[in-house]
Amino acid sequence: MNTPAMFDLSGRVALVSGAARGLGRAASIALAEAGADVLLADRDAVGAQQTAKQIASLGRRAVPVTCDVSDPKQIRAMFAELDREFGHLDFLGNVAGDGILGRPEEIALEEIERTWRNLVYGRFCCCQEAGRRMLKQGRGSIVNIGSLATVTALGRGHIAYSMAMGAVAQMTRELSTEWSGRGVRVNAILPAQVLNPGLEERMAANPELRAKFLSGIPAGRLGQPEDIKGLAVFLASDASNWITGALIPMDGGNLAMNAGGTAGGNDQ
């Protein structure tokens, strides 16, 4: 299938964190399918290498790098590797980052700090390193992965995660405001519940959780990692040249639906 010119990423370089699995892996493969070469970052070296093999089978170049995105030293070493391997950067996908669950009255401050380092501190460091390179070349696109918790509350012990994800929203808006006039666009994608091993474990432990999630998703299903592929290519490409500072839901209609609403219009 021919890629329309505005979506063509041939000759471009992307860096995606969390590339070993889930949304990061799906986004990396989508970018490669559209023509990009990719530096794949993850703590899971084996998983990143597996993603790299799949991208190589598409005829694109992929370089896996082991990196913990809560550690600025590792982040800067990763960008140094990017410079050596590719020499420039066109797209950053900030996907990796763990959150810790805990009731507000019980969670340790150390766990708040650890979540912040994963989801805010490290991500800003990635944005800063990417931004310096993109500003020099006068163009680039950055996407931060947020959450429904970026703009609304989840409860269920998500206090550390939600505070961090709220910061991701403001980081995205501020960087867009600072950099968009100099050619660097910054946006965020806000997924609802996307299936992954951790979420599957939580739903297995609490059989009512799946139904709770689905009750708020008019589309009638949980997300799949592949749901990010089109958005990733769009935001990395010239097709989104005037899209910046946006918080884009990827949620099956969750944020559009009032908490008292009923999917499909049926009273239940």
SSE layout:
Blueprint: E1 13-17, H1 22-33, E2 37-42, H2 45-56, E3 62-66, H3 72-85, E4 91-94, H4 109-137, E5 140-145, H5 159-179, E6 184-191, H6 197-205, H7 208-215, H8 229-236, E7 247-250
Parallel strand pairs: 1-2, 1-4, 2-3, 4-5, 5-6, 6-7
Helix pairs in contact: 1-2, 1-8, 3-4, 4-5
3D structure, described in words:
There is one protein chain. The protein is α/β, with parallel strands linked by helices and 268 residues long. Helices cover 42% and strands 14% of the residues. The chain is built from 8 helices and 7 strands. The chain has helices at residues 22-33, 45-56, 72-85, 109-137, 159-179, 197-205, 208-215, 229-236; strands spanning 13-17, 37-42, 62-66, 91-94, 140-145, 184-191, 247-250. A 7-stranded parallel sheet has the order 3-2-1-4-5-6-7, with helices on both faces. It is globular and about 50 Å long. The mean pLDDT is 93.
